[in-house]
Amino acid sequence: MQTDAFAIRPLTLDDLDALLPLVEALHTGDGDPFDPQRTVDALQLVLSHPEYGVVHVAVVGETIAGYIVGSLGLSVEAGGRFLLVDELYVSPAWRGQGLARALLASLLPYAQAHHCRVVELEVGWENDRARAWYERLGFERHRRFFCSTSLEALDRRLVQRLAR
Fold first, then answer.
1. How many structural domains is the chain composed of?
2. CATH code at 18?
3. 104/68 Cα distance (integer angstroms)
4. Dihedrals φ, ψ of 52, to 5°?
5. What is the DSSP string of 94-131?
6. Is 2 a domain residue?
7. Domain limits for position 62
8. Per-residue pLDDT tens for 79-129?
């Protein structure tokens, strides 16, 4: 997708250095840790395995102004495959100009090609602006908590409990 103001295109390996500050801004803004090497490893994995997901960037001139990461999942509740919008970020200077909407729309052909039935995302409870925007697009709040732990931590805890 391209307009006179910006273009949406797939991420390339050459984009990684320019993308890292945006990923860091999203993660630290949400109060999450940021590990540049872990981020690069994950993005390289998606780039080398498109069956896992897709990453698109919004480019204004020569500047990456935003990005979106979508990954595939499977849910019995959803009735099959779903697309998880894992990350969506637009630099503050470029907000309100349609980049986020265009980035989200850019994932739809990928989701359709992979027979996704549902699009899911996570957004911080404190992020009222983003929540309201997603709700205007038809996303609904669920009465559940999204929880996570590392595989190593879960394995350690389960083994400890089973050993008792």
1. 1
2. 3.40.630.30
3. 7
4. -85, -35
5. GTTSSHHHHHHHHTHHHHHHTT--EEEE---TT-HHHH
6. no
7. 7-163
8. 999 999 999 999 999 999 999 999 999 999 999 999 999 999 988 878 888
